[in-house]
Amino acid sequence: MLSSKWSYRKIRKLVWSKFHKRACLFQMRVAKALFEERKDVVSVAATGMGKTLSFWIPLLMALEENQDKIIIVITPLNILGKQNVDLLKRVGISGVAIDASNSSDATFKEVEAGQHRVIVVNPEILMEVGGHFEKLWKKSHFTSKLLYIVFDEGHCISEWSEFRNQYKHVGSLRYLIPDMVPFYVTSATLPTATLADVSDILQLRSPRLIFRSNNRPTIAIAVHRIQHTMSSFEDLDFLIPRDIAETGNAPPKFLVFFDDRKEAENAAKHLQNLLPDHLRDKVKHFHSVMSDTYRDKQFKALGYGDLFGLCVTDSFGMGLDLPDIAIVVQWRAPKSIIAVWQRFGRAARGDDREGFAILLAEPSHFDEDREKARLAADKRRERAAKKRKSGKPATDPPAKRRTTSNKGSEHQLVPTSNEDQQEQEGRDQDEAETKMAVLDPAVDDLINAGARKLNCRRRVINLVFRNDERG
Protein backbone atom coordinates (compact mmCIF):
# COMPACT_ATOMS: atom_id res chain seq x y z
CA MET A 1 0.00 0.00 0.00
CA LEU A 2 1.22 3.51 -0.79
CA SER A 3 0.14 4.81 2.62
CA SER A 4 3.72 5.03 3.97
CA LYS A 5 3.83 8.55 2.61
CA TRP A 6 1.45 9.67 5.38
CA SER A 7 3.65 11.61 7.79
CA TYR A 8 2.16 13.22 10.87
CA ARG A 9 2.72 16.59 9.28
CA LYS A 10 0.74 15.61 6.20
CA ILE A 11 -2.11 14.17 8.29
CA ARG A 12 -2.30 17.36 10.32
CA LYS A 13 -2.45 19.44 7.16
CA LEU A 14 -5.28 17.31 5.74
CA VAL A 15 -7.33 17.44 8.94
CA TRP A 16 -6.88 21.20 9.22
CA SER A 17 -8.03 21.71 5.65
CA LYS A 18 -11.29 19.88 6.35
CA PHE A 19 -12.14 20.42 10.02
CA HIS A 20 -10.01 23.43 10.96
CA LYS A 21 -8.73 21.42 13.92
CA ARG A 22 -5.16 20.43 14.73
CA ALA A 23 -4.95 16.64 14.91
CA CYS A 24 -3.19 15.44 18.05
CA LEU A 25 -0.74 12.54 18.26
CA PHE A 26 -3.38 10.26 19.77
CA GLN A 27 -5.72 10.78 16.79
CA MET A 28 -2.96 10.34 14.23
CA ARG A 29 -1.72 7.11 15.82
CA VAL A 30 -5.26 5.73 15.52
CA ALA A 31 -5.42 6.82 11.88
CA LYS A 32 -2.11 5.23 10.91
CA ALA A 33 -2.94 1.94 12.69
CA LEU A 34 -6.28 1.67 10.89
CA PHE A 35 -5.23 2.92 7.46
CA GLU A 36 -1.63 1.84 7.08
CA GLU A 37 -1.45 -1.26 9.25
CA ARG A 38 -5.06 -2.46 8.86
CA LYS A 39 -5.04 -3.33 12.57
CA ASP A 40 -7.93 -3.58 14.99
CA VAL A 41 -7.64 -0.58 17.31
CA VAL A 42 -8.88 0.15 20.81
CA SER A 43 -8.58 3.75 21.96
CA VAL A 44 -9.33 5.35 25.30
CA ALA A 45 -9.30 9.07 26.04
CA ALA A 46 -11.19 11.39 28.34
CA THR A 47 -14.63 12.69 27.45
CA GLY A 48 -14.35 15.72 25.20
CA MET A 49 -10.80 14.88 24.09
CA GLY A 50 -11.44 14.36 20.37
CA LYS A 51 -12.21 10.67 19.97
CA THR A 52 -14.93 11.45 17.41
CA LEU A 53 -12.48 13.27 15.14
CA SER A 54 -10.40 10.11 15.05
CA PHE A 55 -13.32 8.30 13.37
CA TRP A 56 -12.95 10.36 10.22
CA ILE A 57 -9.21 10.84 9.73
CA PRO A 58 -8.43 7.45 8.08
CA LEU A 59 -11.40 7.99 5.75
CA LEU A 60 -10.03 11.39 4.78
CA MET A 61 -6.70 9.74 4.01
CA ALA A 62 -8.37 7.15 1.77
CA LEU A 63 -10.40 9.78 -0.08
CA GLU A 64 -7.28 11.87 -0.55
CA GLU A 65 -5.77 8.86 -2.34
CA ASN A 66 -8.90 8.59 -4.50
CA GLN A 67 -9.95 5.33 -2.89
CA ASP A 68 -13.69 4.59 -3.12
CA LYS A 69 -14.24 3.76 0.55
CA ILE A 70 -16.98 3.90 3.18
CA ILE A 71 -17.08 3.35 6.92
CA ILE A 72 -19.79 2.17 9.33
CA VAL A 73 -20.16 3.70 12.79
CA ILE A 74 -22.15 1.67 15.32
CA THR A 75 -23.63 3.93 17.97
CA PRO A 76 -25.77 3.17 21.04
CA LEU A 77 -27.84 6.36 20.70
CA ASN A 78 -29.63 7.59 17.59
CA ILE A 79 -29.10 11.21 18.57
CA LEU A 80 -25.33 10.65 18.39
CA GLY A 81 -25.72 9.52 14.79
CA LYS A 82 -27.55 12.68 13.79
CA GLN A 83 -24.91 14.79 15.53
CA ASN A 84 -22.14 13.07 13.56
CA VAL A 85 -23.91 13.35 10.21
CA ASP A 86 -24.50 17.07 10.76
CA LEU A 87 -20.79 17.54 11.51
CA LEU A 88 -19.73 15.68 8.36
CA LYS A 89 -22.14 17.60 6.17
CA ARG A 90 -20.44 20.85 7.16
CA VAL A 91 -17.12 19.56 5.78
CA GLY A 92 -18.55 18.13 2.59
CA ILE A 93 -18.70 14.42 3.51
CA SER A 94 -22.00 12.67 2.88
CA GLY A 95 -23.27 10.56 5.77
CA VAL A 96 -26.55 8.98 6.79
CA ALA A 97 -27.82 8.16 10.28
CA ILE A 98 -30.14 5.17 10.00
CA ASP A 99 -32.78 4.58 12.65
CA ALA A 100 -36.33 3.24 12.72
CA SER A 101 -37.66 6.36 11.01
CA ASN A 102 -35.65 5.92 7.80
CA SER A 103 -34.62 2.25 7.76
CA SER A 104 -36.29 1.77 4.37
CA ASP A 105 -35.61 0.28 0.96
CA ALA A 106 -34.97 3.77 -0.39
CA THR A 107 -32.32 4.54 2.25
CA PHE A 108 -30.49 1.27 1.67
CA LYS A 109 -30.55 1.73 -2.09
CA GLU A 110 -28.59 4.93 -1.48
CA VAL A 111 -26.22 3.07 0.83
CA GLU A 112 -25.64 0.24 -1.63
CA ALA A 113 -25.07 2.73 -4.45
CA GLY A 114 -22.29 4.38 -2.43
CA GLN A 115 -24.04 7.75 -2.06
CA HIS A 116 -22.85 8.02 1.56
CA ARG A 117 -19.28 7.73 2.80
CA VAL A 118 -20.35 7.30 6.43
CA ILE A 119 -23.19 5.11 7.67
CA VAL A 120 -24.17 5.56 11.33
CA VAL A 121 -26.47 2.92 12.77
CA ASN A 122 -27.56 1.33 16.05
CA PRO A 123 -26.84 -2.37 16.75
CA GLU A 124 -30.49 -3.40 16.48
CA ILE A 125 -30.80 -2.32 12.83
CA LEU A 126 -27.28 -3.52 11.99
CA MET A 127 -27.90 -7.05 13.31
CA GLU A 128 -31.57 -7.42 12.39
CA VAL A 129 -32.27 -10.96 11.17
CA GLY A 130 -33.43 -10.74 7.56
CA GLY A 131 -32.77 -6.98 7.63
CA HIS A 132 -31.20 -4.71 5.05
CA PHE A 133 -27.64 -5.13 6.32
CA GLU A 134 -27.89 -8.91 6.14
CA LYS A 135 -28.52 -8.47 2.43
CA LEU A 136 -25.71 -5.95 2.01
CA TRP A 137 -23.11 -8.31 3.49
CA LYS A 138 -23.73 -10.67 0.57
CA LYS A 139 -22.92 -8.01 -2.04
CA SER A 140 -19.21 -7.83 -2.71
CA HIS A 141 -19.45 -4.51 -4.54
CA PHE A 142 -20.55 -3.04 -1.19
CA THR A 143 -18.33 -4.96 1.25
CA SER A 144 -15.23 -4.34 -0.89
CA LYS A 145 -15.61 -0.63 -0.15
CA LEU A 146 -15.59 -1.08 3.64
CA LEU A 147 -12.53 0.62 5.10
CA TYR A 148 -13.22 -0.09 8.81
CA ILE A 149 -16.06 -0.33 11.34
CA VAL A 150 -16.22 1.97 14.36
CA PHE A 151 -17.79 0.90 17.65
CA ASP A 152 -18.54 4.21 19.33
CA GLU A 153 -18.94 4.15 23.13
CA GLY A 154 -17.45 0.67 23.03
CA HIS A 155 -18.02 -0.03 26.73
CA CYS A 156 -21.72 -0.44 25.89
CA ILE A 157 -20.91 -3.71 24.13
CA SER A 158 -20.31 -5.14 27.60
CA GLU A 159 -22.28 -2.82 29.89
CA TRP A 160 -25.53 -2.73 27.90
CA SER A 161 -25.61 -6.22 26.43
CA GLU A 162 -28.11 -7.47 29.02
CA PHE A 163 -30.84 -5.13 27.78
CA ARG A 164 -29.50 -4.39 24.27
CA ASN A 165 -29.25 -8.03 23.24
CA GLN A 166 -27.80 -7.37 19.78
CA TYR A 167 -24.58 -6.14 21.35
CA LYS A 168 -23.89 -9.76 22.32
CA HIS A 169 -23.84 -10.75 18.65
CA VAL A 170 -21.99 -7.92 16.90
CA GLY A 171 -18.83 -10.04 16.85
CA SER A 172 -20.45 -12.24 14.18
CA LEU A 173 -19.67 -9.44 11.73
CA ARG A 174 -16.20 -11.02 11.53
CA TYR A 175 -17.75 -13.82 9.46
CA LEU A 176 -19.92 -11.59 7.30
CA ILE A 177 -17.46 -9.02 5.96
CA PRO A 178 -14.01 -9.26 4.35
CA ASP A 179 -11.33 -10.41 6.75
CA MET A 180 -9.11 -7.38 6.18
CA VAL A 181 -11.70 -4.86 7.49
CA PRO A 182 -10.46 -3.71 10.92
CA PHE A 183 -12.59 -2.86 13.96
CA TYR A 184 -12.09 0.39 15.83
CA VAL A 185 -13.39 0.41 19.42
CA THR A 186 -13.35 3.67 21.33
CA SER A 187 -14.60 4.87 24.72
CA ALA A 188 -13.67 7.07 27.65
CA THR A 189 -14.31 4.19 30.04
CA LEU A 190 -12.74 0.79 29.36
CA PRO A 191 -11.35 -0.62 32.59
CA THR A 192 -9.47 -3.89 32.29
CA ALA A 193 -12.37 -6.31 32.87
CA THR A 194 -14.68 -4.44 30.49
CA LEU A 195 -12.01 -4.31 27.78
CA ALA A 196 -11.48 -8.06 28.11
CA ASP A 197 -15.21 -8.68 27.70
CA VAL A 198 -15.46 -6.36 24.68
CA SER A 199 -12.41 -7.97 23.07
CA ASP A 200 -13.97 -11.39 23.50
CA ILE A 201 -17.38 -10.38 22.10
CA LEU A 202 -15.86 -8.66 19.05
CA GLN A 203 -13.13 -11.27 18.57
CA LEU A 204 -10.51 -8.54 18.31
CA ARG A 205 -7.27 -9.69 16.68
CA SER A 206 -4.19 -8.48 18.61
CA PRO A 207 -5.56 -4.94 18.65
CA ARG A 208 -3.36 -1.87 18.77
CA LEU A 209 -4.07 -0.27 22.17
CA ILE A 210 -3.85 3.52 22.11
CA PHE A 211 -4.67 4.79 25.58
CA ARG A 212 -4.69 8.21 27.19
CA SER A 213 -5.73 9.16 30.70
CA ASN A 214 -9.46 9.74 31.08
CA ASN A 215 -8.95 12.09 34.01
CA ARG A 216 -10.86 15.39 33.81
CA PRO A 217 -9.02 17.80 36.13
CA THR A 218 -11.37 20.66 35.19
CA ILE A 219 -14.25 18.84 36.90
CA ALA A 220 -14.47 19.05 40.69
CA ILE A 221 -15.93 15.87 42.19
CA ALA A 222 -18.17 15.80 45.28
CA VAL A 223 -20.31 13.20 47.04
CA HIS A 224 -23.16 14.13 49.39
CA ARG A 225 -25.56 12.10 51.48
CA ILE A 226 -29.21 12.50 50.50
CA GLN A 227 -30.80 14.31 53.45
CA HIS A 228 -34.51 14.35 52.63
CA THR A 229 -36.92 11.65 51.61
CA MET A 230 -35.90 10.62 48.12
CA SER A 231 -39.40 10.98 46.70
CA SER A 232 -39.35 14.69 47.63
CA PHE A 233 -36.23 15.52 45.54
CA GLU A 234 -35.55 18.42 47.92
CA ASP A 235 -31.83 17.66 47.81
CA LEU A 236 -31.85 19.09 44.27
CA ASP A 237 -33.18 22.48 45.40
CA PHE A 238 -29.68 24.00 45.30
CA LEU A 239 -29.88 23.98 41.48
CA ILE A 240 -32.51 26.75 41.48
CA PRO A 241 -31.50 30.06 43.12
CA ARG A 242 -33.96 31.14 45.81
CA ASP A 243 -34.04 34.69 44.49
CA ILE A 244 -34.63 33.78 40.87
CA ALA A 245 -38.11 35.35 40.86
CA GLU A 246 -36.60 38.70 41.84
CA THR A 247 -33.39 38.65 39.83
CA GLY A 248 -34.41 36.59 36.81
CA ASN A 249 -30.79 35.42 36.57
CA ALA A 250 -30.39 32.01 35.01
CA PRO A 251 -28.76 29.36 37.21
CA PRO A 252 -25.63 27.55 36.02
CA LYS A 253 -26.59 25.11 33.26
CA PHE A 254 -27.15 21.64 34.72
CA LEU A 255 -27.89 17.99 34.02
CA VAL A 256 -29.31 15.58 36.59
CA PHE A 257 -28.92 11.88 35.76
CA PHE A 258 -31.33 9.19 36.90
CA ASP A 259 -31.48 5.43 36.43
CA ASP A 260 -35.29 5.51 36.49
CA ARG A 261 -37.46 7.33 33.96
CA LYS A 262 -40.24 8.10 36.42
CA GLU A 263 -37.80 9.66 38.85
CA ALA A 264 -36.46 11.87 36.06
CA GLU A 265 -40.00 13.06 35.33
CA ASN A 266 -40.89 13.66 38.98
CA ALA A 267 -37.65 15.49 39.71
CA ALA A 268 -38.22 17.79 36.73
CA LYS A 269 -41.69 18.59 38.07
CA HIS A 270 -40.24 19.37 41.48
CA LEU A 271 -37.65 21.76 40.03
CA GLN A 272 -40.30 23.39 37.83
CA ASN A 273 -42.36 24.08 40.96
CA LEU A 274 -39.43 26.02 42.43
CA LEU A 275 -39.55 28.42 39.49
CA PRO A 276 -41.96 31.31 38.91
CA ASP A 277 -44.76 30.47 36.49
CA HIS A 278 -43.18 32.19 33.48
CA LEU A 279 -39.94 30.19 33.86
CA ARG A 280 -41.31 26.71 34.53
CA ASP A 281 -40.69 25.55 30.98
CA LYS A 282 -36.95 26.10 31.52
CA VAL A 283 -36.51 22.66 33.09
CA LYS A 284 -37.50 19.50 31.20
CA HIS A 285 -37.04 15.75 31.43
CA PHE A 286 -35.42 13.65 28.74
CA HIS A 287 -35.42 9.84 28.44
CA SER A 288 -35.67 6.98 25.98
CA VAL A 289 -39.48 6.92 25.79
CA MET A 290 -39.49 10.39 24.23
CA SER A 291 -39.40 10.63 20.46
CA ASP A 292 -36.11 11.32 18.69
CA THR A 293 -37.58 14.62 17.50
CA TYR A 294 -38.41 15.70 21.05
CA ARG A 295 -34.99 14.71 22.37
CA ASP A 296 -33.20 16.49 19.55
CA LYS A 297 -35.28 19.61 20.23
CA GLN A 298 -34.47 19.62 23.97
CA PHE A 299 -30.78 18.94 23.33
CA LYS A 300 -30.62 21.96 21.04
CA ALA A 301 -32.66 24.10 23.45
CA LEU A 302 -30.19 23.36 26.24
CA GLY A 303 -27.31 24.16 23.91
CA TYR A 304 -28.83 27.48 22.88
CA GLY A 305 -29.49 28.44 26.52
CA ASP A 306 -33.27 28.21 26.19
CA LEU A 307 -33.32 25.73 29.08
CA PHE A 308 -31.74 25.96 32.52
CA GLY A 309 -31.29 22.22 32.78
CA LEU A 310 -32.55 18.73 32.07
CA CYS A 311 -33.41 15.70 34.19
CA VAL A 312 -32.16 12.82 32.06
CA THR A 313 -31.33 9.15 31.76
CA ASP A 314 -28.52 7.58 29.70
CA SER A 315 -30.47 8.41 26.54
CA PHE A 316 -28.88 11.84 26.90
CA GLY A 317 -25.51 10.82 28.23
CA MET A 318 -22.64 9.58 26.16
CA GLY A 319 -20.92 11.54 23.45
CA LEU A 320 -23.34 14.45 23.22
CA ASP A 321 -21.22 17.53 23.03
CA LEU A 322 -22.35 20.66 24.86
CA PRO A 323 -19.43 22.84 25.96
CA ASP A 324 -20.98 24.75 28.85
CA ILE A 325 -22.65 22.32 31.26
CA ALA A 326 -21.57 23.71 34.63
CA ILE A 327 -23.09 21.13 37.01
CA VAL A 328 -23.76 17.42 36.58
CA VAL A 329 -25.63 15.61 39.34
CA GLN A 330 -26.00 11.86 39.67
CA TRP A 331 -29.15 11.02 41.64
CA ARG A 332 -28.59 7.86 43.69
CA ALA A 333 -25.53 5.66 43.43
CA PRO A 334 -25.53 4.03 39.99
CA LYS A 335 -24.65 0.42 39.30
CA SER A 336 -21.15 1.00 37.91
CA ILE A 337 -18.20 3.38 38.00
CA ILE A 338 -18.38 3.48 34.19
CA ALA A 339 -21.85 5.05 34.39
CA VAL A 340 -20.62 7.59 36.97
CA TRP A 341 -17.63 8.74 34.91
CA GLN A 342 -19.50 8.83 31.62
CA ARG A 343 -22.19 11.04 33.13
CA PHE A 344 -19.78 13.28 35.01
CA GLY A 345 -17.95 13.70 31.71
CA ARG A 346 -20.81 15.80 30.32
CA ALA A 347 -19.54 18.73 32.42
CA ALA A 348 -17.10 21.44 31.31
CA ARG A 349 -16.36 20.10 27.83
CA GLY A 350 -15.54 23.48 26.33
CA ASP A 351 -12.08 25.02 26.30
CA ASP A 352 -11.19 26.80 29.55
CA ARG A 353 -14.40 25.61 31.22
CA GLU A 354 -14.65 24.27 34.75
CA GLY A 355 -17.51 22.29 36.21
CA PHE A 356 -18.85 20.40 39.19
CA ALA A 357 -19.87 16.75 39.33
CA ILE A 358 -21.94 15.73 42.36
CA LEU A 359 -23.07 12.27 43.40
CA LEU A 360 -26.09 12.40 45.72
CA ALA A 361 -26.03 8.98 47.35
CA GLU A 362 -28.44 7.16 49.62
CA PRO A 363 -27.41 7.22 53.31
CA SER A 364 -27.24 3.41 53.44
CA HIS A 365 -24.19 3.48 51.13
CA PHE A 366 -22.02 5.42 53.60
CA ASP A 367 -19.74 3.45 55.92
CA GLU A 368 -20.76 5.58 58.91
CA ASP A 369 -24.44 4.85 58.35
CA ARG A 370 -23.76 1.17 57.74
CA GLU A 371 -21.94 0.94 61.06
CA LYS A 372 -24.80 2.70 62.86
CA ALA A 373 -27.28 0.35 61.24
CA ARG A 374 -25.17 -2.66 62.24
CA LEU A 375 -24.93 -1.50 65.86
CA ALA A 376 -28.65 -0.75 65.99
CA ALA A 377 -29.44 -4.18 64.58
CA ASP A 378 -27.17 -5.81 67.18
CA LYS A 379 -28.99 -3.92 69.96
CA ARG A 380 -32.40 -4.91 68.60
CA ARG A 381 -31.39 -8.55 68.52
CA GLU A 382 -30.02 -8.27 72.04
CA ARG A 383 -33.26 -6.67 73.33
CA ALA A 384 -35.35 -9.23 71.51
CA ALA A 385 -33.36 -12.08 73.04
CA LYS A 386 -33.76 -10.63 76.54
CA LYS A 387 -37.51 -10.15 76.05
CA ARG A 388 -37.93 -13.69 74.79
CA LYS A 389 -36.25 -14.96 77.94
CA SER A 390 -38.49 -12.78 80.14
CA GLY A 391 -41.64 -13.68 78.22
CA LYS A 392 -42.37 -10.02 77.18
CA PRO A 393 -43.37 -8.92 73.62
CA ALA A 394 -40.31 -8.23 71.46
CA THR A 395 -41.54 -4.93 69.99
CA ASP A 396 -40.79 -1.26 70.64
CA PRO A 397 -43.58 1.32 71.27
CA PRO A 398 -44.73 2.59 67.83
CA ALA A 399 -44.84 6.24 68.85
CA LYS A 400 -41.11 6.50 69.52
CA ARG A 401 -38.12 6.50 67.23
CA ARG A 402 -34.37 6.61 67.60
CA THR A 403 -32.87 10.05 67.03
CA THR A 404 -29.84 12.10 67.99
CA SER A 405 -30.15 14.35 71.02
CA ASN A 406 -29.30 18.03 70.60
CA LYS A 407 -27.19 17.80 73.75
CA GLY A 408 -24.76 15.24 72.50
CA SER A 409 -24.04 12.39 70.22
CA GLU A 410 -25.79 9.65 72.23
CA HIS A 411 -28.88 8.11 70.68
CA GLN A 412 -32.04 8.57 72.76
CA LEU A 413 -35.65 7.51 72.37
CA VAL A 414 -37.80 10.61 72.03
CA PRO A 415 -41.50 11.10 71.31
CA THR A 416 -42.38 12.08 67.74
CA SER A 417 -45.34 13.77 66.13
CA ASN A 418 -47.38 11.91 63.52
CA GLU A 419 -45.77 14.10 60.82
CA ASP A 420 -42.25 13.26 61.99
CA GLN A 421 -43.10 9.59 62.25
CA GLN A 422 -44.49 9.56 58.69
CA GLU A 423 -41.37 11.26 57.38
CA GLN A 424 -39.16 8.75 59.18
CA GLU A 425 -41.22 5.88 57.82
CA GLY A 426 -40.70 7.28 54.32
CA ARG A 427 -36.96 7.42 54.90
CA ASP A 428 -36.98 3.91 56.27
CA GLN A 429 -38.79 2.68 53.19
CA ASP A 430 -36.29 4.45 50.91
CA GLU A 431 -33.42 2.93 52.87
CA ALA A 432 -34.92 -0.54 52.73
CA GLU A 433 -35.11 -0.33 48.94
CA THR A 434 -31.48 0.68 48.53
CA LYS A 435 -30.02 -1.77 51.04
CA MET A 436 -30.82 -4.53 48.57
CA ALA A 437 -28.69 -2.92 45.84
CA VAL A 438 -25.16 -4.25 45.37
CA LEU A 439 -22.72 -1.46 44.66
CA ASP A 440 -19.82 -1.67 42.28
CA PRO A 441 -16.83 -1.73 44.67
CA ALA A 442 -15.37 1.28 42.86
CA VAL A 443 -18.57 3.30 43.39
CA ASP A 444 -18.47 2.22 47.03
CA ASP A 445 -14.91 3.52 47.30
CA LEU A 446 -15.88 6.77 45.58
CA ILE A 447 -18.63 7.39 48.13
CA ASN A 448 -16.48 6.46 51.12
CA ALA A 449 -13.10 7.78 49.93
CA GLY A 450 -12.66 9.99 52.98
CA ALA A 451 -13.56 7.35 55.54
CA ARG A 452 -11.27 4.83 53.82
CA LYS A 453 -8.34 7.25 53.75
CA LEU A 454 -8.09 7.37 49.97
CA ASN A 455 -7.46 11.12 50.40
CA CYS A 456 -9.12 12.16 47.13
CA ARG A 457 -12.14 10.83 45.27
CA ARG A 458 -10.29 11.37 41.99
CA ARG A 459 -7.81 8.75 43.12
CA VAL A 460 -10.56 6.14 42.80
CA ILE A 461 -11.12 7.14 39.17
CA ASN A 462 -7.42 7.07 38.42
CA LEU A 463 -6.99 3.63 39.98
CA VAL A 464 -9.98 2.04 38.27
CA PHE A 465 -9.01 3.31 34.82
CA ARG A 466 -5.24 2.94 35.41
CA ASN A 467 -4.62 6.56 34.51
CA ASP A 468 -1.16 6.44 36.09
CA GLU A 469 -0.18 4.01 33.31
CA ARG A 470 -1.94 5.81 30.47
CA GLY A 471 -0.48 9.27 30.77
UniProtKB/TrEMBL annotation:
<keyword id="KW-0067">ATP-binding</keyword>
<dbReference type="GO" id="GO:0043138">
    <property type="term" value="F:3'-5' DNA helicase activity"/>
</dbReference>
<dbReference type="Pfam" id="PF00270">
    <property type="entry name" value="DEAD"/>
</dbReference>
<dbReference type="InterPro" id="IPR001650">
    <property type="entry name" value="Helicase_C-like"/>
</dbReference>
<dbReference type="InterPro" id="IPR014001">
    <property type="entry name" value="Helicase_ATP-bd"/>
</dbReference>
<dbReference type="GO" id="GO:0005524">
    <property type="term" value="F:ATP binding"/>
</dbReference>
<feature type="domain" description="Helicase C-terminal">
    <location>
        <begin position="239"/>
        <end position="399"/>
    </location>
</feature>
<dbReference type="InterPro" id="IPR027417">
    <property type="entry name" value="P-loop_NTPase"/>
</dbReference>
<dbReference type="Pfam" id="PF00271">
    <property type="entry name" value="Helicase_C"/>
</dbReference>
<keyword id="KW-0547">Nucleotide-binding</keyword>
<dbReference type="GO" id="GO:0005737">
    <property type="term" value="C:cytoplasm"/>
</dbReference>
<protein>
    <recommendedName>
        <fullName>DNA 3'-5' helicase</fullName>
        <ecNumber>5.6.2.4</ecNumber>
    </recommendedName>
</protein>
<dbReference type="GO" id="GO:0009378">
    <property type="term" value="F:four-way junction helicase activity"/>
</dbReference>
<dbReference type="GO" id="GO:0003677">
    <property type="term" value="F:DNA binding"/>
</dbReference>
<comment type="similarity">
    <text>Belongs to the helicase family. RecQ subfamily.</text>
</comment>
<feature type="region of interest" description="Disordered">
    <location>
        <begin position="377"/>
        <end position="432"/>
    </location>
</feature>
<keyword id="KW-0413">Isomerase</keyword>
<dbReference type="InterPro" id="IPR011545">
    <property type="entry name" value="DEAD/DEAH_box_helicase_dom"/>
</dbReference>
<feature type="domain" description="Helicase ATP-binding">
    <location>
        <begin position="32"/>
        <end position="208"/>
    </location>
</feature>
<keyword id="KW-0238">DNA-binding</keyword>
<feature type="compositionally biased region" description="Basic residues">
    <location>
        <begin position="382"/>
        <end position="391"/>
    </location>
</feature>
<dbReference type="GO" id="GO:0005694">
    <property type="term" value="C:chromosome"/>
</dbReference>
<dbReference type="GO" id="GO:0000724">
    <property type="term" value="P:double-strand break repair via homologous recombination"/>
</dbReference>
